[in-house]
Amino acid sequence: MLTMENVIREGHPTLRKVAEEVTFPLDEKEIELAEEMLQFLKNSQDPEIAEKYELRAGVGIAAPQVNVSKRIIAVHIPSSDPEEKPESDFSEILYNPKIVSHSVQQTCLADGEGCLSVDREVPGYVPRHKRITVEYFDKDGKKQKKRLREFPAIVTQHEIDHLNGVMFYDRIDKDNPLALPDGIEVLGGSEEE
Ligand code: SB7
Ligand code: NI
Predict the structure, then answer these.
(1) What is the pLDDT at residue 189?
(2) Cα-to-centroid distance, 182 and ligand 2 (Å)
(3) Residue 190 pLDDT
(4) DSSP assignment of the chain, as one string?
């Protein structure tokens, strides 16, 4: 079982590497790792399991975060939140994910982003594409294509960034972390619009 002890933290060189594509058929270790990554996310969102194993809640994780420099990500955004629209549900393992198109419209989370590999709060808006089309392979090597918007799109972009050695704070405006690019839509948070 994966725990926070398996998660490498900023400063570790693997987080700054461009991860390698996987090749098909996958080997058993790659399949197992991805399943463990998805299970970690589920565990981290279960209050009892999370407390017992001291897991920080996560909605996504990328293989480089567990020190495996391969293009594998897992995303787990469950439906239980009544405020989320049903089409926002997304629970998936993505091999070699690639954004093949995206909206011009940008979005960002009102409360910024965090990262399992970053043990500090980094305030600031992280501009993301509001909608993306992502192509990826499933564990059987079958090509898949999904359109994602808003929160699932943001999380998927955060994870794909990890595959390219990019951290969320690289995208925050250094001079003015709370500067909003023209026309960007701010998502969620407690602030009224
Ligand atoms: C907020 C949180 C995440 C993505 C986008 C916005 C995921 C945090 C967990 N991770 O560090 C995954 O890489
Ligand atoms: Ni992260």
Answers:
(1) 79
(2) 26
(3) 66
(4) ---GGGS--TT-GGGGSPPBPP-SSPPHHHHHHHHHHHHHHHHHTSHHHHHHHTPPP-SEEEGGGGT--BSEEEEEE-S--TTS-GGG-EEEEEEEEEEEEE-S-EEEETT----TT--S---S---EESEEEEEEE-TTS-EEEEEEEHHHHHHHHHHHHHHTT--GGGGS-SS-TT---TT-EEESSS---
